[in-house]
Every structure is written in structure tokens, then in C-alpha cells.
Design goal:
The protein is an alpha+beta fold and 92 residues long. It has two domains: 57 residues; 28 residues. Helix content is 45%, strand content 25%. It contains three helices and three strands, in the order E-E-H-E-H-H. It has a three-stranded antiparallel sheet, with helices on both faces. Strand 1 and strand 2 form a beta hairpin. It is flat and about 50 Å long. The chain starts with a strand and ends in an 8-residue tail after the last helix. The relative contact order is 0.17.
């Protein structure tokens, strides 16, 4: 498991992810980045997980716009419908 320091800029929608393996280093980097971001459009978050792919899946709002997230949700419903033998949803 790793720590992931995420820095999301609400103005530009840009995100950076820094993987960190050591807990103390992660907490220090998070605290420092939080101080730097104070009063800015940046949101700084520290996550703990298996992989960056997991982070992208569980916290998609930082990585995808609303249309992309909706498409991903519909794709998941279609995948489940196919597994159950139902028909996928019709495109909008």
C-alpha cells in the first residue's frame, strides 16, 4: 500500500498525484503542501491505497469531468447488464 498526495486545482482542473511509500514522509509532504495551498484554488488530499488506478476509480471526480464520469457509470451498468444477460442501455 502507498500514500498518494493529490493536488487538485479547481480553477484549471489540473491534478497532480505524488506516490509516497513512507507514512511520515507522506504526512510531512501533505502538511507542507496544505500550507502552500492555503487561500488558493488548490485542494490537497492525502489518500492511502493499493494503486493510482484504484485512486482514479474511487475518487474519479478529481480526474474526470461530469460527462466522462456519467459515461463511465453507464458503461458499468452496461457491463453488469451483459453479465446478467440483459440488454445494455440505449445511447442517449
Amino acid at each position: 500500500m502507498k500514500y498518494f498526495l493529490l493536488d487538485y486545482d479547481h480553477d484549471t482542473r489540473e491534478v497532480s498525484v505524488t506516490p509516497i511509500t513512507e507514512r511520515g514522509e507522506a504526512l510531512g509532504a501533505y502538511s507542507e503542501r496544505e500550507r502552500e495551498a492555503l487561500g488558493s484554488s488548490h485542494e490537497v488530499v492525502l489518500f492511502y491505497g493499493e494503486s493510482e488506478d484504484d485512486l482514479r476509480r474511487t475518487h474519479a471526480r478529481y480526474f474526470f469531468d461530469l460527462a466522462e464520469m456519467a459515461e463511465r457509470v453507464l458503461d458499468r451498468f452496461d457491463e453488469r447488464a451483459v453479465r446478467r444477460g440483459s440488454q445494455p442501455s440505449a445511447p442517449a
